[in-house]
Amino acid sequence: xxxxxxxxxxxxxxxxxxxxxxxxxxxxxxxxxxxxxxxxxxxxxxxxxxxxxxxxxxxxxxxxxxxxxxxxxxxxxxxxxxxxxxxxxxxxxxxxxxxxxxxxxxxxxxxxxxxxxxxxxxxxxxxxxxxxxxxxxxxxxxxxxxxxxxxxxxxxxxxxxxxxxxxxxxxxxxxxxxxxxxxxxxxxxxxxxxxxxxxxxxxxxxxxxxxxxxxxxxxxxxxxxxxxxxxxxxxxxxxxxxxxxxxxxxxxxxxxxxxxxxxxxxxxxxxxxxxxxxxxxxxxxxxxxxxxxxxxxxxxxxxxxxxxxxxxxxxxxxxxxxxxxxxxxxxxxxxxxxxxxxxxxxxxxxxxxxxxxxxxxxxxxxxxxxxxxxxxxxxxxxxxxxxxxxxxxxxxxxxxxxxxxxxxxxxxxxxxxxxxxxxxxxxxxxxxxxxxxxxxxxxxxxxxxxxxxxxxxxxxxxxxxxxxxxxxxxxxxxxxxxxxxxxxxxxxxxxxxxxxxxxxxxxxxxxxxxxxxxxxxxxxxxxxxxxxxxxxxxxxxxxxxxxxxxxxxxxxxxxxxxxxxxxxxxxxxxxxxxxxxxxxxxxxxxxxxxxxxxxxxxxxxxxxxxxxxxxxxxxxxxxxxxxxxxxxxxxxxxxxxxxxxxxxxxxxxxxxxxxxxxxxxxxxxxxxxxxxxxxxxxxxxxxxxxxxxxxxxxxxxxxxxxxxxxxxxxxxxxxxxxxxxxxxxxxxxxxxxxxxxxxxxxxxxxxxxxxxxx
Length: 758
Description:
By secondary structure, the chain is mainly beta. The chain contains seven helices and 53 strands. A hairpin with a 5-residue loop joins strand 27 and strand 28. It is elongated. Keywords: Membrane, Transmembrane, Transmembrane helix.
């Protein structure tokens, strides 16, 4: 008996051990079967989702009295790995029902979804289904407005696949509902820390950027997640979505017709453009008829005429290359609708820029906070003869003054409005007006009885503007020089109203090629002898615009020749004024002789060998003799004006090239207009001059001819500066300088040593 009990006990323990071992092996296999795609972090949150079906809709109930909007968020699940830049299409059909289950409305909203890469780190997602990691798209969403929800209490969602690579779609539904709160600040502080951080994360300058109105909006409404009804045995834990905060929806949505948001769209009414900063090859991928596409290169300095670029077809379908493209502006035109994507020589895609405008009309005005002694840049887009009023108020909201404006409404050939359906709509050109805010002003309002697009930018009046100038085009490294823009966009006080009513215009911006206006102005040098006693003459290469008519050459205009044999002596009346300049690599580096001595002086022939020769003969003379003045580092050069020029041109030269930019500060002083103007003068600037050129200037001195020219600075004197009193120039290096005034009146006689054609 004893042995029987002992055997039974051993058998029982063996069975327990076998069961534990079996469950342990199964649990180990279950853990090993999970294939996470990305590690979780503290900044991630879980979001329960549910599969949409094609034949059976997913139904949600909501309160019609407390629901302001519905937001449908979805993610496509790919059956196989797809390329990141290839959109996968699907659609969601939504149907609204009332309390009696009567259908009110049924619509289809389309999506173009792209794969979300973990390496992108903007949006880390994964869905684990049966312990297997799936490929997930970027998040898509669309809103159902309150107008559609007036009598609705239920919504049914159904997926419509439009691509074979789509495995399915997961969805979650949020309802915008009001919250009951009396103490706004307490309600804000009671929000979860993640919610507050998520709100702050939408701003680029931190928590101090959250205004009282934005806090009010954050606690007045809440987005509640709805659960699907009528679907038994829902297990959200099996379908888990990880997303990084803040949730970033990539806008690839369209309502009826899809146009790639990243592409450059052109047709017979709209053209597109982009800048090329570095020389090299550029490639394009064209969707449409390439025979209808024309590509033109423009020199933004207008020293060369526009050139038509020819296509070189590559092996991939619809892909073309343009070889050895110089820095400049590329303009794309087409006779039929065409979409094109562009890539620079290093395969970097060219991204189009955009801007947002508030849609102002009789029912909704734009209100801004302003600061005294600041300036505003008002941009409007509206129909021809539209009227706009700009009103200023004090801190008690008492009216100070009102400015009335009328728009021209010119048709935009490049800019276009991007609709929520990704379609490109025609718009008008942006019309800019400027206003200097008077003392005592605290608020600015923009009203109109017409549909007007409004954008406001502001700047402090004495704010330092920094810009880099290059020989062609350049993008300056911030470690070398930091450019500071002149204007900064400002958010309206009632921005929430525009956002809630979907009254924001998304405008895609493109640069127009420079106009070919023939200047009716003249440039004359300024005599700085009394201020800067040290000066010297130089031979400077003049580079006029390609379309500017050539003026009859003067005695101080020279042309380059290869040898003395190229000289054809003029008639006796002109011979006395004819000169020969010799620039040599050996001392004396510079010599000048009258052509009358050419036959008698043997020394001229020996000096001219292996030297650069210039004469003031012939019709095509690209070189100009002018006088340069020496400006010491840190020494302010103040110029006073009795008459108001169109602009002041500053030309800078150095004895030696340097790796750092040449930096020059300018400051204008005068009487400014207090009215709305269509031009604006920046009073204080700091320039960084980059790209020294050794071959476009020679110092005319026997001991030295080497000189380096830098990009020309133009200080415009616009119509908002009623009276110009003085201009102060200060360099941060020792430089040679030439200052020219642009005027509309031609002088009867010009001193050759000061005059220069631009």
